[in-house]
Specification:
By secondary structure, the protein is of the alpha+beta class. It is built from 8 helices and 4 strands; from the N terminus they run αααββαβααβαα. It is 53% helix and 8% strand.
């Protein structure tokens, strides 16, 4: 990467640079085949299937204690017609990475967790103050084993079934009711633990510097 002022290529050279490389022929062909398949199934059929699965999931997840859904929550809402098959949620007292791990290991369900490339939005939804967000960044650099707050996201599509949704609801219900002992907690609720770890780190660093200075 260089500053723009250091580039002195002519227009012809820039055009050659822009057109260099090879097209993603395989990706283009796959995209075209996928679009043909979607047309054969029918986008209206896909939307109907996604909304049926999403509606059932929302109704089931709403019954799980401590589970909070973000976005459109009610299948009876006028906005539900514009909702895709994506549901974002969190379980009170259980970190998103733990939820994802439990779903994968116990049900073979793949979800995404964390900030979903939307850090500012997620931290706002979780009411994380900007100063605390900066502190979290420092802490995770010093202590990579600490999990940061985030949300869990499940996506439903034409390849899913009613049975899949039932498995998701059943497992999340079990995860929500399992004992909290040993479960990771967000650093926003473990300030004492964080302070202790920071003190230990500072003490160890000071001792190392002292030892090196006297060696």
């Amino acid at each position: 990467m260089v500053r723009k002022g250091l580039l002195h290529s002519s227009s012809a050279e820039l055009e050659l640079i822009r057109s260099s490389g090879e097209e993603n022929v395989g990706g283009i062909a796959a995209l075209g085949k996928a679009l043909v398949l979607l047309q054969r199934i029918g986008l209206d059929v896909i939307q109907e299937q996604e909304q049926a699965l999403t509606g059932r999931a929302l109704r089931g997840l709403a019954q799980i204690p401590g589970l909070e859904i973000y976005g459109v929550k009610d299948p009876g809402s006028p906005r539900f017609a514009q909702k895709g098959g994506v549901i974002v949620f969190r379980l009170e007292g259980i970190m998103a990475n733990r939820v994802a791990k439990e779903l994968a290991e116990r049900g073979g369900i793949g979800v995404r967790y964390g900030c979903h490339c939307a850090h500012l939005l997620i931290k706002r939804l979780l009411n994380i103050h900007p100063l605390l967000a900066l502190l979290q960044g420092l802490i995770v650099t010093l202590f990579p084993q600490i999990a940061l707050p985030g949300l869990t996201r499940v996506s439903l599509g034409i390849e899913n079934s009613e049975e899949d949704v039932g498995t998701l609801i059943r497992l999340l219900g079990k995860i929500a009711l399992q004992p909290r002992a040993g479960v990771d907690r967000p650093i926003t609720s473990t300030q004492t633990d964080v302070q202790r770890q920071m003190d230990e780190f500072a003490s160890a660093a000071a001792q190392r510097v002292y030892s090196e200075g006297n060696s």
